[in-house]
Amino acid sequence: MDNQPSRKTVLRAALAAGVAVPAALLAVPALARTSTQAPPLTPACDDGDDPTPPQTEGPYFKPNSPERTSLVQPGTVGTPLTVSGYVFGLKCQPIAKVLLDFWQADNNGAYDNVGFKFRGHQYTDANGAFKLTTIVPGLYPGRTRHIHVKVQAPNRPVLTTQLYFPNEPRNNTDSIFDPRLLMTVHNVGNGREAAFDFVLNVPQNPPTTTPPPGGGGTWAAGTSYPAGTRVTYNGIGYVCLQTHVAQPGWEPPATAALWRAE
Ligand SMILES: [Fe+2]
């Protein structure tokens, strides 16, 4: 991995901050609801975010885990941990209703193979976000510290993988360990907050670029239009309200923030 902020990193920050996400990422007509702001000039999402790699399931998966976002129960011993993040598809757009089924060892490195302690599934919300509340899993022989997870977008295959903690001595000797699956982990109070974003091998269409029927005129995608420029589109004259570079989907009739009919 390099240190360049990726498209999904930027998107993650935007989602976390609750700010408007560029339409080109979410494929929604953002211009229709941002009438006073300049539109985001977002290039195609092609930053090369590879899908999250799969890992072995291991011997301790159990189906039918309870649906819950917290694996902490009364009397749970261990270092508090949250794992939060987003699930994206191949075009870096977040995916809602993705199933995430987590299972992990307890503080002593033991799995509950009788009941469902430290096992639970949840679904991403409308923003593609998830958050797991748990403890830092204990170590057991032969492995570095890890959390197991199965991730499945609606009607898509299951991704089985594992998440890892940075700065663990055993990361260097565990043959299964994959640095691409390292979480970002911060100490917060007496616990830890971890973050990881999944990228699933889910095709996603680019934002809708279908122009209104008809078209024609002097307006053209790819053209830089200073404010005040006059164009015609589908037989109607428009004046440019904000300097921008025209893109497919930003035709004058569809972008009241950019063009005013004359
Ligand atoms: Fe394990």
CATH fold field value of one domain: Protocatechuate 3,4-Dioxygenase, subunit A
Helical run tally: 2
Give the overall shape: elongated
Heteromolecules bound = fe (ii) ion
Can you give a write-up of this model?
This protein is mainly beta and 262 residues long. Among the domains are: 80-199, Aromatic compound dioxygenase (Protocatechuate 3,4-Dioxygenase, subunit A); 209-262, Ribbon (Seminal Fluid Protein  PDC-109 (Domain B)). It has two helices and 14 strands; from the N terminus they run H-H-E-E-E-E-E-E-E-E-E-E-E-E-E-E. Strands 1, 4, 7, 8 and 9 form a five-stranded mixed beta sheet that branches. A four-stranded antiparallel beta sheet has the order 3-2-5-6, with no helix packed on it. The longest helix has 11 residues, at 7-17. It is elongated and about 70 Å long. The protein starts with 6 loop residues before the first helix and ends with a strand. Fe (ii) ion is lined by residues 58, 60, 143, 146, 148. The site of fe (ii) ion has 5 residues, from strand 5.
What's the short story on this structure?
The protein is mainly β. Helices cover 6% and strands 26% of the residues. The chain binds fe (ii) ion.
